[in-house]
Amino acid sequence: MDGSLSQNDLSHVIEADKAHVWHHLTQHKQFETGDPRIIVEGKGLRVWDQTGREHLDAVSGAVWTVNVGYGRKSIVDAISEQLMKLNYFAGAAGSIPGALYAEKLIEKMPGLSRVYYCNSGSEANEKAFKMVRQIAHKRYGGKKHKILYRERDYHGTTIACLSGGGQQERNAQYGPFAPGFVEVPHCLEYRAQWDLSGEAYGQRAADAIEEVILREGPDTVGALCLEPVTAGGGVIVPPPGYWERVQEICRKYDILLHIDEVVCGVGRTGTWFGYQHYGVEPDFVTMAKGVASGYAAIACCVTSERVFDLFKDDASDPMNYFRDISTFGGCTAGPAAALENMRIIEDEDLLGNCTRMGDYMLGRLGELKDKHAVVGDVRGKGLFLGAELVADRESRAPLHEKQVAAVVADVNRQGVIIGMTNRSIPGLNNTLCFAPPLIVTKDDVDEIITAVDNALSRVAV
């Protein structure tokens, strides 16, 4: 940390924060007797807090966002130059970085063609939901309007996104919810609902989606919204055969496939997008976090030309186009940052590094599983990894959330920041989460694993 702020300055910042800032996902009662953590500076994988203490950030900004790491001057310069030229104009008009980033992005997404800009993952998912509903009215008399979502998946924080989210504790106290959203079963083989394994389990979990469609009526279901790898619901990698069967079901019943890549998109799993591991062809792909690695607010709802064409006609009805606006989707900093972010990923082979380091880290987590009976399962794809902690390995009884939180706190005291599923799924908030920036090295991985090893030895006994 460069020490540019004096201790008096930092003391003022802390008091101002305590007096006026409402932190995300935080119970503020604790700040009556303690101070909030203020992150002052970041470089590479490291961040420094107000005490000057260094931390290795193994979760990319705590919410899986800073894919290319902190302190990227070239992204800052790209933003600065663009803002001086044109900082904003409403999205009803185009911009140079908006057009150029859309072109580059679509190059990475064969079969898709259109980019709708907005400024958060929740908002991107809302756009897709609205498109599905409008298509239902335009083509099906409003009947084919239901949107299916998966148990344990998460799609955002707005009321509509919570309506289509499969995490009961995140939804608690925020109802009543929007109608027309219907849950389908999860696909976590470690918590299997059927006495099957491997591809047989994957196909059965997908068949369960078809059962919901038939129960609801195929003529009422407009879309299926899934994460390629379930993120905050426990880092769930779909089993073999799952995605292929899902695609088949969607085509059979003319259901639009919406893949939420807000977490997995732009390199996190070792491909540009998580769905690309599985050979599926979505109708919608939504993304946010890693699009600009947190250097600017940007999100995208990407669609196929088939979807786009449903809103393009010469009819005299003035209601036929997609009547939506995202004010800050017109900010030019986002696509300018995203262009440079993409260049860095390409030029530094960060997709390759993600695959190599992800495989290495998964192996190291496997070593922890061999050493500590409290580690029931390790799983992941690329640099998005999880370790599910259990009180009893044979019964798979989950470790209590408080004990999992104690492991995370111990790791943090060692100077490494990791995450966990928390206040999401009743009784199953027991997975440690890892998503370091894509620039992570073997030495960094070893540092993370050592800290977790120490914590498991001390806490989860």
Shape designation: globular
CATH topology of the largest domain: Aspartate Aminotransferase, domain 2
CATH class identity of the largest domain: Alpha Beta
- Give the full name of the CATH homologous superfamily of the largest domain: Type I PLP-dependent aspartate aminotransferase-like (Major domain)
Give Rg in angstroms.
22 Å
Order of helices and strands: HEEEHHHEHEHHEHEHEEEHHHEEEHEEEH
The number of helical segments is 14
- Low-confidence runs of at least 5 consecutive residues: none
Euclidean distance between termini CA atoms:
36 Å
Report the mean per-residue pLDDT as an integer: 96
Give the strand order, joined by hyphens, for the main sheet.
4-10-9-8-7-5-6
What would you call the structural class?
A: alpha/beta
The CATH architecture of the largest domain can be given as: 3-Layer(aba) Sandwich
**Overall tally of structural domains:** 2
Sketch the major β-sheet.
7 strands, mixed
InterPro entries: Aminotrans_3, Aminotrans_3_PPA_site, PyrdxlP-dep_Trfase, PyrdxlP-dep_Trfase_major, PyrdxlP-dep_Trfase_small
Organism: Salipiger marinus
Protein name: Taurine-pyruvate aminotransferase
Keywords: Aminotransferase, Pyridoxal phosphate, Pyruvate, Transferase
